[in-house]
């Protein structure tokens, strides 16, 4: 099926040759007119996928309690910048703010900043968190002590893919053939140097992925926290330790689809390499905790007790709903193991809870 973005990309390829997977992914998601996040119904049962905050209020409440603990350990700075990368519909931040409201002085100290480039999503976020300030990147957020959250943000950052062929690593690019896209192998860009060296000995046919923007953002988060104080929580699905494999995928109507079929009409993601993000942050002097499995992290913070508390006020149908939400977030066959949690902190902060 032809889409406006497909025609644009095919013309670009015809003029300039095959494009990197990173270029393709960036255009599909964030093209200013035809990008997925600019136009499609993204989140929720009526969208293409459901994130943890949309599953249950308990997720945001646990994150809020974690942030409150860090704020107290930081010495209760006022003001403190509460920064969220990729805030979706604003659901997570709304739940965080409700959870921290009993913590004396915290709500009054918070300045909320959303890192969001989608005009469509900014309007949805404004409905739930009207007092937020919006930024295209963290560069324009004022300096100062910060608490940072990124839930299912890093998986949408553009990746480069490399494949080993006859003993040589080549880059997978996207070419146009008639009205279709195909994958081709080309000489690698310098981004190949970002691949973990221990994976370069893998056999022919192996595929490696790197996400330069993820490494850059993790490094900038670490620099900010080290210079001005604070902590960050990164939650996403992916590898604890990098491994070979193709995780380039697309989701539409809660089902996997071919990412090369309808550019701009489906969500495109790749698994997050948590060890690479952690290394980028550590190189900037930050301290790390995790990555931990999401299920274990949430249980350590008390989500089981919170589920019990909520269930006590509900009828049997409501109790079953809470139990189902808890299972979805924490069970190993649901989101509990595939999703990981990584904390990045200024060096002087005490150990983070939940790990």
Protein model, in words:
This protein is of the alpha/beta class and 355 residues long. It has one domain: Rossmann fold, CATH 3.40.50.12710. 37% of the residues lie in helices and 24% in strands. The chain has 13 helices and 16 strands. The strands form three sheets. Strands 2, 3, 4, 5, 10, 14, 15 and 16 form an eight-stranded mixed β-sheet that branches.
Write the layout of secondary structure elements.
Elements: H1 4-16, E1 19-20, H2 21-30, H3 36-39, H4 52-55, H5 57-73, E2 80-85, H6 91-100, H7 106-109, E3 110-115, H8 119-128, E4 133-135, E5 146-151, E6 160-165, E7 168-177, E8 180-186, E9 207-210, H9 212-228, E10 230-239, E11 249-252, E12 255-257, E13 267-269, E14 272-273, H10 274-282, E15 287-293, H11 294-301, H12 303-311, H13 316-330, E16 339-345
Parallel strand pairs: 2-3, 2-5, 3-4, 5-10, 10-14
Antiparallel strand pairs: 1-7, 6-7, 6-9, 7-8, 10-16, 11-12, 11-13, 15-16
Helix pairs in contact: 5-6, 9-10, 12-13
